[in-house]
Design goal:
Helix content: 25-40%
Strand content: 15-25%
Number of domains: 2
Structural class: alpha/beta
Largest sheet: 5 strands, mixed
CATH architecture of the largest domain: Sandwich
Bound molecules: fe (ii) ion
Oligomer: single chain
Shape: elongated
CATH superfamily of the largest domain: Aromatic compound dioxygenase
CATH class of the largest domain: Mainly Beta
Distance between the termini: 54 Å
């Protein structure tokens, strides 16, 4: 790089800065003050990024092509843009900004791209596997408030991948498996059979996968079970229970979702050990975990 004339540099900086201010000024008549604030800030940060890295025109065209391809792949079954937000940590940062820690309430983490509404309901002790393959896992716990009082009737949505790392929405035949909802009892308690979570990579056959490869990052997630817990008067909790001992905990989670308080001990049981509810497991190994949920009050 050649030395630049300081005066020319100052002129250049003034031109670049002037453009930023012109764009920000263009939002002055926006009737919605929040939209004006968001667009003005977005403009300042976007322009600062372009100026800081001295973005080339070819790099900008590559970025536009990348986003266009990700957009084409965004649909009900393939959430490439959610994935992009996840691997950039933007999803987790939005969770952090909107779910400030409240006393010892259970911490929130990313929703991920595989939640769907209208999951089947199961009773206490029911099985959400729905035929999905994997090691059976007994999950139990309570839903309480931060004073320790039970929260009865909380809706607990749970979803998880099968042993091949696939969610049901990734199956070709459209069947529902590895997801369900149930309600906490009068004592706040809940229990169900699921599958011991296995490790899986986030989808990496699209532009986001190519990006991860280009920057030398693994698409692998730490093993986890997804939860969404809702109850009137309480902040909706979107979280995950992570499997203690998963080597991926050391290597890093591809979506930055892990919090230490959410890492739980899954106790593997020998084949032949009877299930806690008397279930016959036909000599299969199984696992069990306790996940107590503490809800923060509605702000
Ligand atoms: Fe997941």
């Amino acid at each position: 790089m050649t030395d630049r004339d300081p005066a020319a540099s100052a002129d250049q900086a003034a031109r670049e800065h002037g453009l930023v201010e012109s764009v920000v000024a263009s939002f002055a008549n926006c009737a919605d003050p929040r939209l004006r604030e968001v667009m003005s800030s977005l403009t300042r940060h976007l322009h600062a990024f372009i100026r800081e890295v001295r973005l080339t025109e070819e790099e900008w065209r590559t970025a536009i092509r990348f986003l266009a391809e990700a957009g084409r792949l965004a649909g009900d079954e393939h959430q490439e843009l959610v994935l992009l937000s996840d691997v950039l940590g933007a999803s987790m940062q939005t969770v952090a900004v909107n779910n400030e820690a409240y006393e010892h309430a259970t911490e929130a983490t990313v929703l991920g791209p595989f939640f769907v509404t209208d999951s089947p309901g199961i009773p206490h002790g029911g099985d959400l596997a729905g035929g999905a393959a994997g090691t059976p896992c007994w999950v139990e716990g309570t839903v309480t408030d931060t004073d320790g009082s039970p929260v009865a009737g909380a809706r607990i949505e749970v979803w998880e991948a099968d042993e091949d790392g696939l969610y049901d929405v990734q199956y070709a035949d459209g069947r529902v498996a590895g997801r369900a909802h149930l309600y906490s009892g009068d004592d706040g308690g809940y229990c169900f059979w699921g599958l011991k979570p296995g490790s899986y990579p986030v989808p990496h056959d699209g532009p986001v996968g190519r990006l991860l490869e280009a920057v030398g990052r693994s698409p692998q997630r730490v093993e986890h079970l997804h939860y969404m817990v809702t109850a009137p008067g309480y902040r909706t909790l979107v979280t995950q229970a992570f499997v203690e001992g998963d080597p991926q905990l050391r290597l890093g989670d591809s979506v930055f979702g892990v919090k230490d308080s959410l890492v739980k001990r899954f106790e593997d049981q020998r084949p032949g050990t009877p299930g806690p509810d008397g279930r016959e497991l036909d000599g299969q190994a199984w696992s069990r975990v306790r996940f107590d949920v503490v809800l923060a009050p509605q702000p």
